[in-house]
Design brief:
This protein has ten helices and no strands. The longest helix is centred in the first third of the chain and has 41 residues. Helices cover 70% and strands 0% of the residues. It is mainly alpha-helical and 288 residues long.
Length: 288
């Protein structure tokens, strides 16, 4: 183990290769989380509602992140281990189920590839350090939250709340900022969007965003400190404008259909994690 750690510390090529492989494997697992976690939450909510209404809960197959085994949604073919190799299996199968030949969504290898690339970028920035390992956890969670919110307009507490606590715990050891900045970052991140939500609701009678957005910005504040929040909010607005306009132009998306804000926050938070210092210096340089 000591020799492996020394090798990763001293050989950048080996470190990047191991990080890429790890990122691809984690990306494959994130596909499972993205698909199954909302279903698990929905099943739990239905069970709780049945109990509150004194009704018999529906009997359905229990879904967890590990069971049942992955199958083709079209024919039920059980996915073999060699059919589940990140990216490579998709290419080998030519994007089709080996049994029924129905198409496999390209989103699966794209999530795996994105996770691998972003993981490499994180370690290139932070190196083989505790901060690098923590930044990988943050990156992977943000990818899962982005895709879940895009699919369901939900940011599960199962992910946002542990993310917030991990940020505070990590910064107790000063991984990214001091604990005081992290604490006020969590508070300011949550309250800033909560205030916007309340004002928008007061003026329009509508809910402009969900509570998950407050928790996600609070979590980002806990990881990077209150000082980074203006940049995250600015970046999320820019990212949201670019993606939103693109969706309207390309897909003709109805302007009245709500667009989840969580993905924009997650993307902005990751950009701030890697490039926050440079962007802040560039911004301040405009006024110097």
């Amino acid at each position: 183990m000591h020799n492996l750690i020394e090798l990763l510390n001293n050989n950048m090529a080996v470190l990047m290769a191991c990080t890429a492989i790890l990122g691809l494997l984690v990306g494959s697992f994130l596909n499972v989380v993205i698909h199954r976690l909302p279903k698990m939450l929905e099943a739990d909510w239905k069970q709780q509602c049945a109990l509150l209404l004194d009704q018999e809960p529906e009997t359905a197959e229990t879904i967890t992140l590990s069971t049942p085994n992955s199958t083709c949604p079209h024919c039920g073919h059980a996915i073999k281990p060699w059919e589940n190799i990140p990216v490579l299996s998709y290419l080998f199968l030519k994007g089709k189920c080996s049994q029924c030949k129905q198409g496999i969504s390209i989103r699966y290898p794209l999530v795996e590839l994105a996770t691998g690339i972003l993981s490499v970028m994180v370690i290139m920035h932070f190196g083989f350090t505790w901060s690098g390992g923590a930044a990988l956890l943050l990156t992977w969670t943000l990818i899962a939250l982005t895709m879940i919110d895009a699919d369901t307009q939900l940011l599960p507490d199962n992910l946002t709340l542990p993310l917030l606590w991990l940020g505070l715990i990590g910064n107790y050891f000063g991984l990214f900022t001091d604990l005081e900045s992290a604490l006020w970052g969590a508070i300011a991140g949550y309250l800033s969007l909560w205030t916007v939500y309340q004002l928008f609701k007061l003026l329009t009678g509508k809910e402009g965003m969900g509570f998950g957005d407050f928790k996600l910005l609070g979590a980002l504040g806990a990881w990077m400190g209150w000082q980074i929040l203006p940049l995250v909010i600015l970046l999320s607005s820019v990212v949201g404008a670019v993606i939103g306009i693109g969706m309207i132009l390309v897909r003709g998306k109805d302007r009245n259909i709500p667009i989840p804000f969580g993905p924009y926050l997650a993307i902005a938070g990751w950009i701030a994690l890697i490039y926050g210092d440079q962007l802040t210096a560039l911004w301040l340089g405009q006024f110097s």
